[in-house]
Amino acid sequence: MKILNVIPAFTPSHGGTVTVLYRLSAELTKLGHTVTIICSDFNFDAKYAKSIEKLGVRVIPFHCTLSIASFRISFSMKKWLKEHIDNFDIIHLHDFRSYQTYVAARYAIKRNIPYILQPHNSMPTHTGKARLKSVYDILMGRPVLDNMSKLIAVSREEVAYSVRLGIPPEKISQIYSGIDVDTKLSKKQPFGLFRQKFDIKGAMILYLGRINKTKGIDILIKSFYLLSREIGDVTLVIAGLDDGFKSNLEKMIDDLGLDDKVRLTGVLNDFDKISAYVDADVFIHAVAYMGGVGLTPLEALVCGTPVIVTKECGEIIDAAHCGYFVQYGDVEDLKDKIFYVLNNPEEARATVIRGTEYLNENLSWENIARRVEQLYENVICNL
User: Of 139, 176, 231, 345, whose CB count within 10 A is highest?
Assistant: First the structure.
């Protein structure tokens, strides 16, 4: 098959959607398919693109002519699609509300080429910018949904949300994103490299992800403040791309007198990211909304680190009985759970073992890619 993947931007700093596309494209190429990725050049990571091109995947960035409220307009992509979309058997759209998704769907509809939408939990309006999202949905979003062949939901929660939007259940396929259980994550760095680089003392608590107000990082800082009064030798690491919330966190850290106990590292490269997972005593992902599944807790488990999550991102953690749960916003409960994990390392280690066994059996990228491949074939055959 000739597969065209469409995504607004291609850089790992933009989070799990890009990582999922990278790994899925690499696996589909191994299966013998021709895979192309098109995107805007907004924050384009040329080194990252080159690394997947070495695996046989073509990446084509188009100039971002205009950027309006995270809407990256690339007029040259429209021209390219008009000239080249007929060369592909199927289109896979990643993310819902984007110029790239809209224009690719529009040409796919015109040329009668099937397309699959994978929103990656981007459809809900209650996670911010509700008014702008509603405008997009009215003007552009509905035709994309009405004409798609299939929607890939990455969790049971996303399936339920999609049905509430009026998408017929028979158009929805629930396929979890894969996890690197047998590649770079499992080839762990030696313990202590991250701690040495960032001068980490004592127990290390880690959050890794976008610095966004929905991620519960402010709750984590408040919980950490209470914990630091009970355990003196402890450090909180907050790593990831600032999504407009970093200054709020810096003020909170300063107000609580935690400057010497909190490290804001910014975006980590792959080596430091894995080192952080390996060196952490516990990984926290106490988010407000994640559509049922968060990838970073699964990465932490693969690297041997116990996890504490909210139900909003813990669908797989719950299924595998491989982590600890807190209610979003409950400062005391989160503090108590961190304290418990730090003081019960053998039990925490057992959760990690259960988690890695579950991921190996169910969520290897080879397994996920074959499910997506079958979905493509079914869609093409049913034209």
Answer: 176
